[in-house]
Amino acid sequence: SQQGEEDPQALSIQEGENATMNCSYKTSINNLQWYRQNSGRGLVHLILIRSNEREKHSGRLRVTLDTSKKSSSLLITASRAADTASYFCATDAEWDQGGSEKLVFGKGTKLTVNP
Amino acid sequence: DGGITQSPKYLFRKEGQNVTLSCEQNLNHDAMYWYRQDPGQGLRLIYYSQIVNDFQKGDIAEGYSVSREKKESFPLTVTSAQKNPTAFYLCASSIVRRSNQPQHFGDGTRLSIL
Description:
heterodimer, A: mainly beta, B: mainly beta, 11 strands, 49% strand
């Protein structure tokens, strides 16, 4: 399966520390997306990074992509209690029977930021 | 504000009963999706629709059915043929069905068996 796999499965840090989550995938991709899910809520899109990009920033978020290692990382700097959530990567490069690209989600990293 | 509305938030199903989950969007998106999320798991695609009056099976369509009669609406029916329906169901939409488009999600419906 093309499914991205996040690592670690769970991460617990103190407020103010940085949090790094990783996503590995198996075959070449065109795009990789990161999403956040608060407990009992839907997913919220954070960042999309294309295969020809190495790094993207959005506020306190930094995403890197290393296509040679087939991996991506999401860094949250100066974390806050409100960052407590599960974080998912989603990768493409799978195709359905109709010839459309599929977005496949990993199982997520559960981040807990302690006040 | 534009967004996706799922209802109800909680739903209980009796044995042999079909139940329908509602999903409405006012983002003017062409593509809509239904996902199933089990505890500690990622999202699995049930059905998707790229345009009105068209929909396709995803990876786990058995025991589910959908319709797309209006651009704004994509209801999901969990039929009695779905033997393990207890899960968190998420509806999403995107401008078009391409991997370079972010998906926008509703806040989900949690379905349980009575």
